[in-house]
Design the sequence.
């Protein structure tokens, strides 16, 4: 966090100097990077204001590419704050500008953001169209990260939304075979992780665990710590579903400790929430109280205004269930709300 704070101070000073000397394009880029850094520091109100300054400056000097990037980032920020109605016109404008300047990699990113926003607004058919377009461009440009993002969102917002799990597995099998044929080990690992999640929802826990274990090992070998720990945490949850509550707790504890050491706050929150869920399954007053403490610690790690963060609502329900199991009915009801 100290490193991010130092970067914030440097970027803020640099943006001011660049504007003073008339280097407006560079100043707009600097403001954009400053807004990203502010988000990392949980300064979300300032991040939005700074992103707006970047967009306004880019528009003033006619830099459409940087304007589009700023609009896309701003749309994503609003979306994360559960303000999808405000995010939609920004995402549409960003997409149009990216297409005008012919930036294909930015186009699939904009389509991905747009698809999520449309899904949040209940426009699921439009969301699927946007996400499939994003997937097509990401695959055609060879972007592992873009392919993974589009595939994840298609699974979550489209296949899972309509309960088409068998179709979802066929979709993932096609992507996996393509990634294997192209020797893209990173994408194979990410898709295996996603496959494990779907198999878990189908109750195929043995297959799910094998997929997640393989993905975790591959991600560790490739050096992607955050993705690896997320995957290991999910495999810990699957262990609980297989009846190994103590093994599950140990796996989640190890993932949480590594995430804490690496200051990966969102991964840490995820591991703590899942550990609380396992504590609820285990039962017993001492275990339930410890589980509640873990879940509340995880909830405190997610900044105010980011209640739309993945699994946040589930974590609130876990906390409510723990309160209820402890006989704290009023607290359970308040957390559920």
Sequence:
């Amino acid at each position: 966090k100290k490193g991010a704070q130092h970067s914030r101070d440097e970027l803020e000073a640099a943006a001011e100097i660049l504007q003073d000397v008339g280097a407006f394009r560079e100043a707009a880029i600097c403001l954009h990077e400053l807004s990203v850094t502010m988000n990392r520091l949980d300064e979300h109100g300032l991040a939005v204001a700074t992103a707006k300054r970047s967009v306004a400056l880019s528009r003033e000097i006619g830099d459409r590419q940087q304007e589009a990037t700023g609009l896309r980032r701003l749309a994503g920020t609003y979306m994360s704050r559960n303000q999808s109605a405000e995010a939609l016109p920004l995402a549409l404008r960003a997409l149009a500008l990216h297409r005008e300047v012919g930036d294909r990699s930015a186009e699939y990113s904009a389509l991905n953001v747009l698809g999520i926003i449309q899904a949040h607004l209940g426009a699921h058919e439009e969301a699927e169209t946007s996400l499939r377009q994003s997937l097509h461009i990401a695959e055609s440009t060879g972007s592992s990260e873009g392919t993974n993002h589009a595939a994840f969102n298609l699974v979550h917002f489209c296949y899972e939304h309509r309960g088409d799990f068998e179709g979802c597995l066929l979709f993932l099998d096609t992507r996996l075979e393509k990634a294997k044929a192209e020797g893209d080990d990173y994408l194979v690992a990410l898709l295996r992780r996603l496959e494990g999640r779907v198999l878990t929802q189908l109750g195929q826990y043995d297959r799910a665990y094998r997929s997640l274990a393989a993905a975790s090992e591959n991600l560790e070998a490739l050096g992607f710590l955050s993705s690896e720990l997320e995957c290991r945490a999910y495999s810990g949850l699957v262990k609980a579903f297989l009846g190994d509550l103590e093994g599950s707790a140990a796996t989640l504890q190890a993932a949480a400790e590594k995430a804490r050491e690496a200051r990966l706050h969102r991964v840490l929150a995820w591991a703590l929430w899942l550990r609380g869920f396992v504590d609820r399954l285990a039962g017993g007053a001492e275990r339930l109280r410890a589980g509640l403490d873990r879940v509340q610690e995880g909830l405190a790690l997610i900044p105010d205004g980011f209640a739309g963060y993945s699994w946040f609502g589930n974590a609130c329900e876990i906390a409510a269930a723990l309160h209820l199991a402890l006989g704290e009915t009023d607290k359970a009801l308040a957390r559920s709300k």
About this structure: Residues 89 and 322 are 40 Å apart (CA to CA).
